[in-house]
Amino acid sequence: MPARPIRDSLRLILASASPRRVDLLRAAGFEFEQCPADIDESRLPNEAATPYVLRLAETKARAVWRKGTRTLGADTVVVLGSEVLGKPRDPLQARRMLQRLSRRSHAVLTGVAVFDGHSCFTLCERTQVRFRSLVEREIEEYVASGEPLDKAGAYAIQGGAAKFVESVSGSYSNVVGLPLEAVEAVLR
What is the span of the domain harbouring residue 175? Predict the structure, then answer.
């Protein structure tokens, strides 16, 4: 069932701590307040990637909603085959993720939810990314930079991992962390 349109008179709250999402929304000209949601982001047993990111996005949006606002929640994961790659726990896990992404295509999924206190509109954006062949030295250097440690799939396409990317099919901003084209359509 389609949600009713979100009213433009409501103040926007971004339910995320992500500086990348903040930068994307600001670049698009949105005025908003940032209020990170403190929720359990654990995946449920046997939960597929799309329902997972949609559940987290909606839970974040609902967690920070206040009267007179609309909230934007989002969650991004990398999917390699049927495996969901979230943020690595440590440098060793980051290194392993990057080794597995080398010479392969993977999907980046971002679940988005906009909640106005009555209706919640959700969407899931999918972008295909292909990495070139990575050598161990460059993986080690990238992991040592610390950048991969708070990124889904252990990389930032807008940062040091840009040189790893052979191709992108779909929304580039989705890979950064927010499918801006889709979000803008919902919010405007």
Answer: 11-187
Burial 50-86 (b: 16+ CB within 10 A, else e): eebbbbbbbbbbbbbbeeebbbbbbbbbbbeeeebbb
23 is catalytic: no
6 belongs to a structural domain? no
In which element (H, E) is residue 123 found? strand 120-131
Task: Say if CB 152 and CB 83 are below 8 A apart.
Answer: no
Q: What Rg do the C-alpha atoms of the chain give, in angstroms?
A: 17
Tell which residue, 15, 20, 33, 13, has the closest CA to residue 150.
20
Domain assignment of residue 3, yes or no: no
Query: Could you say which of 75, 90, 116, 150 is catalytic?
Result: 75
CA atoms 18, 23, 28, 29: torsion sign = positive
Residue 4 lies in a domain: no
Q: Quick check: is 158 in a domain?
A: yes
Give the pLDDT means over successive 10-residue stretches in the chain (188 positions): 49 95 94 96 95 98 96 97 94 98 98 96 98 98 96 96 98 96 89
Give the predicted TM-score (pTM) of the model: 0.91
Domain count, the chain: 1
